[in-house]
Specification:
about 15% strand, about 50% helix, 6-stranded mixed sheet, MutS, DNA mismatch repair protein, Chain A, domain 3, alpha/beta
């Protein structure tokens, strides 16, 4: 990051945070070397990639890029015919494993189209070659017996030959005739040959070849003549073994060379994806959003939070530039946030041009620029004999040379460090020159002359960092359209300056400045009143909207209940009609039968009348009950639960009219006036009161964090299983795909217990021992469902 303007705005610190999110060395280098793009299309593409990665991380978790190293050089050497060593081959296998796992991770979200799809599609996994390497090479120093049938056969012969030699030597060392010659009754190896330790003074008593002596010279290691030939056979087999290993490595290297181009391309894609997902992870840490970009110099940031300030202390603020005005003059007291505002404008612009999301609210707008030029901070140089004013002027000269209509210029304390009158005049002239170039300009100042310039000039707007005069503390909010006050007298008074000094200073201030300050103070007071009224109006609006929402919901519920009641009434009416129709037909049949009789008796007539009465009663929807001379046990009161006797409906008394001897009763959704004589008092809990549905939010102070690995070394089997269960639960909640369980090699007890537990765990799809680079047999990799 050589651009001093970028360093001035602290872009290098943001890129260092980005680099810390990468896991591949080349991705880290790319992050630190990131340059802002001045093209709108390119910047939008970079931002869209970050936004899509941000979405994928939120839904599926961050993909693992493992411990991939840059193996491009080794792969190209293999392509040229070189034989790679075991370490290089294992690292290439790790590269292939990460490529494969990344492709599998993307398949889980294949239904979602993103800007990253082209890169994912260019990945070329090679499961065949990956498996061949990992099954052939167990570690940097060990080739598997199963790497080839020939190697397996050679090692079997070596094992048989070695056993025979050991048997012969065992007989020698346990022979009574040789016991007195030996230093120890053991068989050892020197120079790849089996030997026995003999006391130096008895060297001539044991016929054979001397291969070594001890450091003290008291022991010689002799290969007895009886095993020389057998040792020679083993030596020949060892040579064959080494030749076979070299052949295996050569074959693996040749296969890697055949896929060199696709593997190198896939590695380049891994580097790019790792950087993009690092941007997404950084955005999550900053709680950032993707801004809307334009090329018109329009900046409108909502709730901006400078990413390098403590999140607990940073104050969100709204910033605007390049909309109805092209120049913003920011004033206010020292330590009020003026410089932070300038840096936020410049830093956010550079971040967006790098494809980074910004810590601000949704729908914030930023512009791309050819240059972001800034003079912020004191560049005084003792070596160059530059004063503060000279240093600022040197920077401004460079800005004036580079600026054009596609530049963003940010200047802190414009015109300071010299005579106030001359400084104010020079500052005004610089503003006019920069504006004539068409730049987007933001500057901070304490000069009243520049505040007046902003008030009197079209396209120039005042802004101030708000200061609470009651508490004498800055609020760090930026107010557009308001000139600020330095509040020097108020601050000095609060710090203990004598009142007489303050009074004399106020006398010395020119009348013109005093009038200007009074105007600014009136504006501030008016703004505060209007802001309070606006807040009050917004609160009233929110309350009204809430009341309207509740009323609409209640109306919908009433309408739904009424519809249900109507449907029920229609169903009951249909049943009544059907029953009445059946009774009419039956009655008609009886009438026909009576007509055919010669003599109609009184009993026949009574039967017909009874049938008509039954039909009338059944056709009446109100069930008539015989009054059982019921007497109320006490006077009715509001809220009593009652039974409406003649329709057999339960209800609640809403109102009582003693004069008319009736009560207003609500039965379900229906309200009706009912006479006291038709009411029966019920027990308190026999009528269910309408239940208002409510929702509640349960807050918890438990913060869940999940890691892709859990270390259980040193724990008992039971403790380890519990730790693994907790890690699985956390991983599932955070949408992680794999979990690495570090149990160590040791006696194998932890590994056995953990794998037995994983085998029957409902959330585990599969598990395996780690490969080289993952921890070998000391770790178990579990894949979650």
């Amino acid at each position: 990051m050589e651009n001093k303007f970028y360093k001035c705005l602290e872009l290098d610190k943001i890129l260092l945070l980005l680099a810390d999110e990468t896991s591949i060395e080349r991705s880290r280098e790319a992050a630190l070397a990131l340059e802002p793009s001045s093209g709108l299309f390119e910047a939008n593409e970079l931002l869209a990639e970050t936004n899509d990665a941000h979405m994928l991380v939120g839904r599926f978790g961050t993909p693992s890029f493992g411990t991939v190293r840059d193996m491009t050089n080794a792969i190209r050497r293999a392509q040229a015919g070189a034989v790679l060593n075991t370490l290089e081959l294992l690292r290439i296998a790790e590269l292939l494993r990460v490529i494969r796992s990344l492709e599998e991770w993307r398949k889980k979200s294949a239904s979602i189209e993103t800007k990253l799809d082209m890169r994912f599609n260019m990945l070329a996994p090679n499961k065949y070659l990956e498996t061949k390497i990992t099954t052939s090479i167990l570690s940097e120093d060990e080739i598997a017996d199963t790497a080839s049938h020939n190697l397996q056969d050679i090692r079997r012969k070596i094992s048989i030959a070695s056993s025979k030699v050991r048997e012969r030597l065992d007989k020698i060392i346990h022979s009574a005739s040789y016991q007195k010659f030996l230093q120890d009754s053991i068989v050892t190896i020197r120079g790849g040959r089996f030997v026995i330790p003999v006391k130096a003074e008895f060297r001539s008593s044991v016929p054979g070849l001397v291969h070594d002596t001890s450091a003290s010279g008291a022991t010689v290691f002799i290969e007895p003549m009886g095993v020389v030939e057998a040792n020679n056979d083993i030596r020949i087999l060892r040579s064959k073994e080494q030749a076979e290993i070299e052949r295996i490595l050569a074959n693996l290297s040749a296969e890697i060379g055949a896929y060199a181009d696709s593997m190198c391309k896939s590695y380049d894609i891994l580097v790019q994806l790792n950087l993009i997902f690092a941007k997404a992870n950084l955005a999550y840490k900053m709680k950032a959003t993707a801004p809307i970009l334009n090329a018109d110099g329009r900046i409108k940031i909502k709730k901006a939070r400078h990413p390098l300030i403590d999140p607990e202390k940073v104050v969100a603020t709204d910033i605007e530039l390049g909309t109805s005005f092209d120049t913003l003059v920011i004033t206010g007291p020292n330590t009020g946030g003026k410089t932070v505002t300038l840096k936020t404008i410049g830093l956010f612009s550079l971040m967006a041009m790098c494809g980074l999301m910004i810590p601000a609210s949704d729908n914030s707008e930023l512009s791309v620029f050819d240059d972001v030029l800034a003079d912020i901070g004191d560049e005084q140089s003792i070596e160059q004999s530059l004063s503060t004013f000279s240093a600022h002027m040197t920077m401004i000269i460079q800005i004036l040379k580079r600026a054009n209509d596609r530049s963003l210029v940010l200047i802190d304390e414009l015109g300071s460090g010299t005579d106030p009158a001359e400084g104010a005049a020079l500052a005004t002239a610089i503003l006019e020159r920069l504006r004539s170039m068409g730049v987007r300009l933001a500057a901070t100042t304490h000069y009243d002359e520049i505040k007046r310039f902003a008030l009197e000039t079209n396209g120039v707007e005042n802004g101030c960092c708000e200061f609470d005069i009651k508490t004498l503390r800055p609020t760090y909010r930026l107010l557009i359209g308001m000139p600020g006050r330095s509040n020097a007298f108020a601050i000095s008074k609060s710090l203990g300056i004598d009142d007489e000094i303050i009074a004399r200073a106020e006398e010395l201030v020119s009348q013109e400045n005093t009038r200007f300050e009074e105007v600014v103070k009136k504006l501030e007071d008016s703004r505060s009143v209007l802001e309070e009224k606006l807040i009050e109006a917004e609160n009233t609006k929110r309350e009204s909207e809430q009341i309207l929402k509740e009323a609409n919901e209640k109306a919908e519920r009433i309408e739904k209940d009424a519809k249900n009641e109507l449907d029920l009434a229609k169903a009951q009416a249909g049943n009544i009609v059907q029953k009445a129709r059946a009774q009419v037909y039956a009655l008609l049949d009886e009438l026909e039968a009576v007509k055919k009789k010669q003599n109609v008796t009184a009993e026949d007539k009574a039967k017909l009348k009874a049938g008509i009465r039954n039909m009338e009663n059944d056709a009446d929807p109100i069930e008539r009950r015989k009054n059982d001379e019921y007497v109320l046990p006490r006077k009715l009161k509001k809220g009593d639960n009652v039974l409406i006797f003649d329709i057999d409906k339960k209800g609640i008394i809403l109102d009582i009219d003693e004069t008319a001897q009736n009560a207003l009763v609500q039965a379900g959704i229906v309200k009706m006036r009912v006479e006291f004589s038709n009411l029966r008092l019920l027990k308190e809990d026999t009528v269910k009161k309408p239940i208002r549905k409510s929702t509640r939010t349960v807050k918890t102070d438990v913060s869940r964090t999940a890691s892709t690995e859990v270390d259980v070394r040193g724990q008992t089997a039971m403790e380890a299983v519990m730790s693994v269960d907790n890690a699985i639960d956390s991983a599932i909640l955070m949408n992680l795909n794999t979990l690495t369980i570090i149990h160590g090699k040791g006696t194998g007890v932890l590994r056995k217990e953990i794998q037995a537990h994983l085998k029957k765990h409902p959330s585990i799809r599969s598990y395996r021992l780690g490969t080289y680079g993952e921890g070998d047999a000391g770790v178990t990799i579990a894949e979650l469902k």
